[in-house]
Design goal:
single chain, alpha+beta, eight-stranded mixed beta sheet
Length: 134
């Protein structure tokens, strides 16, 4: 079951510049983290019970580097917090939705994540996220 929006992922070229901008808006930086599986460095800003997640590439073959090249900076994905990730993926597949990740993989914040294919989700890259308290 989808519980709420976990976070909104925003691609930036320069993480420090991104952090400085969201701090100007008055948001508080919760922390940064490198996610080797996605070749990104991430910065989190809590907003109520959701977060803004800034993503900057750490390598030229990072998916975020590809996104920045094609589309420039901006909203890259929306993540829904789910209570059971394998079950949610199975349900999506039964509905004929294409998946990028058939199996959960490690994300930032100790979470397990999986992406749906944007070609079958009307152009929006959707992430399912099973959060773990830390
Ligand atoms: Zn995410």
């Amino acid at each position: 079951m989808i519980k709420r929006i976990s976070h909104i992922g925003i691609a930036v070229r320069d993480l420090d510049e991104g952090i400085a901008f969201y701090q100007k808006l008055g948001l508080t930086l919760e922390g940064t983290e490198e996610v080797p599986s996605q070749k990104v460095k991430v910065a989190f800003f809590p907003v109520g019970d959701t977060r803004i997640e800034l993503l900057a590439p750490t390598a030229d073959d990072s998916p975020i580097a590809g996104f920045l090249e094609k589309k420039g900076e901006g909203i890259q994905h929306i993540a829904f917090a789910v209570d059971d990730l394998p079950e949610q993926l199975e349900k999506a597949q039964e509905e004929g939705i294409r998946l990028i990740d058939k199996e959960p993989r490690p994300g930032a914040h100790n979470a397990e994540i999986a992406f749906l294919h944007p070609k079958s989700s009307l152009g929006v890259l959707i992430e399912f996220c099973k959060e773990h308290s830390h």
